[in-house]
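pls read this protein:
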Amino acid sequence: MTRPQAPAKGVALITGTSTGIGLATAIEAARAGWTTVATMRDLGRADALRAAADAAGVVLDVRRLDVTDAADIEREVAYCIDAYGRLDVLVNNAGSAAVGTVEMLGLEAFRSAMEVNFFGVVALTRAALPHLRESGGRVITISSVGGIVGQPFNEAYCAAKFAVEGFLESLQPVAKTLGVGVHVIEPGAVSSNFVENAGIDVDSLLASAGSYGPAISAYLARTSTQFASSNAQQPADVAAVVLAAMEEENPDFRIQTSAWAHDFVATKLADLDGSRVTGLTAGWVASN
C-alpha cells in the first residue's frame, strides 16, 4: 500500500487495527484527512484492514507493532517522526480479553492482561509524549465501561482497565500543563471480533468451572445477548466518537460512546458505597 505523502490534519498512530474499533478508527481517521499509521501485532491479519481501506478509497501506512515489545514501541514512534516529521495523536486501542474468575484463570492470565491492556498503554504513551508535547497533540485511549464498573468473570480485564483509567486520570492534568490532551473512550458492548479474539472455548470453560458453573453459565448467556449485533454498537459508531475526540477543540476527559454506556458508568460514579454496582452485577450471575 502506498505510504501517505504528508500530514493533512496531522499524524495519528493507532494500535490494534486488524479488526473492530481499531480498524474502523483507522479508516475514519484517514477518510477525515489524517495521515494514519495503522499498526497491529500480526501483519498476517492485515487483509481486512487493507480491503476496508481500498473500499473507502483511503491510504493507510500499515505497520507491525506489538505493544508488549519495547523495541517495537521505540521503532514505530521513531518511524512516525522519521517518515512524517511529527506525531499529533496516539490512539491506544490494542487490547485483549480474559474471561474466567481468579481460581479458573491463574496468575499468568492476570499478568498477560496487564501487559497488553495496561503496560502497553503506559509504554506507548511514555514514548509518544515528547513528540506530542511538540505538536500539542493528544493521547486517546480505548478503555471500556469495564474500566469503571467491575464485571463478573472479567476480573483480569477490568483490573487492567481500572489501572488504565487511574493512570490516565492522574496524567491528564499534568499533561495538560504542557499542552497535551489526555482522553479515555468508554464503549459498552461492541459488535466486533474482540470476544472471539479472546480465544474462549465455551465448552472447555464450562467444563473447568467447577463450583462456578451455574454463575458462569448465566454470565455467558447474558453476554451472548449483549454482544449480538442487534444490541451492540457497531465499530464505526465508536470510531466516530474517537474521531471527534481527535478533532474537537476541547473534548472531555472521559467519553462514553452510547447512551447505555453513559448510564452504566453513571451508576458507578454516583455509587459512593458500591452497593448499586454490586447489586446490579449480582443479577448477571444469578441462576434461575
